[in-house]
Amino acid sequence: MKPDWEKLSAAFADSSSVVVADVDCTSDGGKEVCNGAGVKGYPTIKYFTDETGADGESYNGARSYDALETFTKDKLEVSCDITNPSECDEKEQGYITKMSAKDKADIAKEVTRLSGMMGAKMSADKKQWMAKRLAIIKQM
């Protein structure tokens, strides 16, 4: 399963809405995370959305790359389409408004800047917001 999980992580590394992560529940740092998420056996796959809340939901489907990718795309991946901003969150809508006022040269600079920063080390929520902005601006 580990190779498929790593492949899934790489496939969604630049996703604006999905973070694929793993936690070693046997390590000192991982035990607290796993206990808090109700993990009792290993390996356990959990996913977290607004609907599942902080406790998350156990994934019980097939564990091949294809099955994991299909589940992630169908159930977890969310993207903001600038042609239908009502489906975007408030922060994304604000970014669309802000960047819509820019000219093509400014937009190109922002794509270059954000693309360059995607490889930098940062918290998951900051990386997710950066990926969301990049996905939005690439539609312009």
In a few lines, what is going on in this structure?
This protein has 140 residues and is mainly α.
Secondary-structure map:
Blueprint: H1 2-11, H2 28-36, E1 46-47, E2 57-58, H3 65-76, H4 90-100, H5 104-117, H6 124-137
Antiparallel strand pairs: 1-2
- Runs in which pLDDT lies below 50 for 5 or more consecutive residues are none
The biggest sheet amounts to: 2 strands, antiparallel
**C-alpha Rg (nearest Å):** 17 Å
> Structural class from helices and strands?
mainly alpha
Share of β-strand residues:
under 5%
- Name the shape in a single word: elongated
Give helix and strand order, one letter per element, not per position. Answer: HHEEHHHH
Tell me roughly what share of residues is in helical segments. Answer: 40-55%
Q: State the strand order across the main sheet.
A: 1-2
Number of alpha- plus pi-helical segments: 6
**Count of extended strands:** 2
> How many angstroms does the end-to-end distance come to?
38 Å
Overall mean pLDDT stands at 88
Please describe the structure with a list of short key phrases separated by commas or semicolons.
single chain, 140 residues, 3% strand, elongated
